[in-house]
Design brief:
34% helix; five-stranded parallel β-sheet; alpha/beta; Rossmann fold; 9 helices; single chain; seven-stranded parallel β-sheet
């Protein structure tokens, strides 16, 4: 990791010939708090003008890719649904691999509209009274009664620790308005796992689907190659993100180059102690 550079856009203009594609996080990079971040729209417009390949890879599992595309385009971007991969897209492969199609799953919070679980072939419920008949649980984000639902899910897994516990977003937290953070699905799942272990149930193992885990990078990379019609060498793809634990660790493990923007959840003081080191660091676009 070198010195912190002021502008990613300036760096990209000088080094564009080193790259064949850009994979970009959304929240904390292109937008935060429901609004575009400074310089992000101008940068995307320049990429479009140059016909430079870009894909978006997000740990936002409570908005479908259709919802995410509408949000971005409403704020002056230009993205198609097929250019966006969500952590919850991993449910398709997870359900297929475990032979769970048609099973009833309890959904914690929001999971996109249309629902990612339904897209994966599952039946769903948010009714706690039906939780005992469910084959497993999927943790989404927001819009649920934390006390009732978390206690219900905890007791469900104390009785059924081997049942699937899918967590599309592994993050502990995500950026909110005004520089604040909200607890994310990964934080909720680890809390449930930790309390269950304290109670004596140590075999509960959530299945995380999003960044930094490699299946979602492979899914996104294959989709990008499919759109371009040719193979991409990973060392010529740059992942641009705001999370050391999700974006940078995932990119480094997958063989991408990694660039960190200090516009989201990571602050400069976080860099020295974190084990995941970005190749490049930028203050903004």
């Amino acid at each position: 990791m070198g010195a912190i550079q002021p502008s990613f856009h300036d760096w990209f203009r000088r080094h564009q010939d080193e790259l064949d594609a850009l994979v970009c996080d959304i929240d904390g990079v292109l937008a935060a708090g429901g609004a575009p971040l400074p310089g992000s729209r101008d940068f995307v417009r320049e990429l479009r003008s140059a016909q430079f390949p870009i894909a978006l890879l997000t740990n936002d599992g409570n908005h479908s890719v259709a919802e995410k595309a509408r949000f971005l385009n409403r704020h002056g971007f230009d993205f198609r649904e097929e250019e966006i991969t969500s952590c919850a897209d991993g449910l398709v492969e997870a359900v297929r691999a475990a032979g769970l199609a048609g099973q009833l799953f309890f959904i914690v919070g929001d999971l996109g509209e249309p629902c990612f679980a339904a897209k994966a072939g599952l039946r769903t419920t948010r009714d706690l009274a039906r939780l005992p008949e469910c084959a497993g649980v999927i943790v989404g984000e927001e819009n649920y009664d934390w006390a009732a639902v978390i206690n219900g899910v905890l007791n469900f897994f104390i009785r059924n620790p081997a049942k699937p516990f899918f967590v599309p977003n592994p993050d502990e937290y995500y950026p909110a308005r005004g520089g604040t953070i909200n607890i994310a699905a990964g934080g909720v799942a680890r809390f449930i796992q930790r309390v269950a272990a304290t109670y004596g149930v140590s075999s509960l193992n959530p299945v995380y689907l999003g960044k930094p885990y490699q299946p979602i990078f492979a899914h996104s990379h294959a989709a990008l190659e499919g759109r371009l019609g040719h193979r991409l060498r990973r060392h010529r793809v740059l992942m641009l993100g705001d999370s050391l634990a999700a974006d940078i660790q995932g990119a480094n493990d997958f063989g991408y180059r990694s660039g960190l923007l200090l516009t989201g959840i990571t602050r400069e003081q976080h860099l020295p102690a974190h084990p995941s080191k970005p190749e490049l660091v930028f203050r903004g676009f």
